[in-house]
Design brief:
By secondary structure, this protein is an alpha/beta fold. It has 2 domains: 3-108, Alpha-Beta Complex (Spore Coat Polysaccharide Biosynthesis Protein SpsA, Chain A); 112-149, no CATH class. The protein has 7 helices and 6 strands. The strands form 2 sheets. The chain has a 4-stranded parallel sheet with strand order 3-2-1-6, sandwiched between helices. A two-stranded antiparallel ribbon has the order 4-5. The termini are close together. Mean pLDDT is 79; it is low at 130-149.
Length: 149
């Protein structure tokens, strides 16, 4: 299973603290991924530095990107989580040949989720309902296959 992990961050170190963020990063090691796509529109470098040091320590390829587009939000044109997520998806298809792109929240710890998720990834019959288990909104095989190579 070839996996790339994506994180969408914005001032994460300042918002959740370095200790919590490190726990989130360490929890990601339960997934056998080879690379991290970090989309961060933060004006400072703190979160990027932490992720870079983590990736170097664990031998993960790291690609850091900003949102490529902006959206109108509360009468202000700026990057949003949606534009950041789209930048990650675009970068995945442009730069990687891997089979899966997983998104990891920058402030959520859920130990053991990978053990449950990989059961659904391996069983084709469950793909239709996999989004329910992993917190996604899609339910059809057609949508599922559009994100899977």
């Amino acid at each position: 299973m070839n996996i790339v992990l994506s994180m969408i961050t914005y001032m994460t170190v300042e918002r959740v603290g370095i200790e919590t963020f490190m726990k989130v990063l360490e929890s990601s090691l339960q997934v056998p991924y080879k690379a991290i796509i970090l989309v961060d529109d933060t004006p400072n470098e703190n979160t990027k530095i932490v992720v870079k040091e983590f990736a170097e320590k664990w031998g993960k390829e790291l690609v850091i990107e900003k949102s490529r587009k902006t959206a109108l939000f509360n009468n202000v044109v700026r990057p949003t989580r949606a534009t950041a997520r789209q930048a990650s998806i675009d970068l995945f298809f442009e730069s990687f040949q891997d089979e899966w792109l997983f998104f990891l929240d920058d402030d959520v710890l859920n130990p053991g989720w990978w053990d449950e998720a990989k059961q659904y990834l391996m069983r084709k019959c469950c793909r239709r309902n996999m989004g329910n288990k992993l917190g996604c909104k899609f339910r059809t095989e057609k949508v599922f296959n559009s994100f899977r190579r």
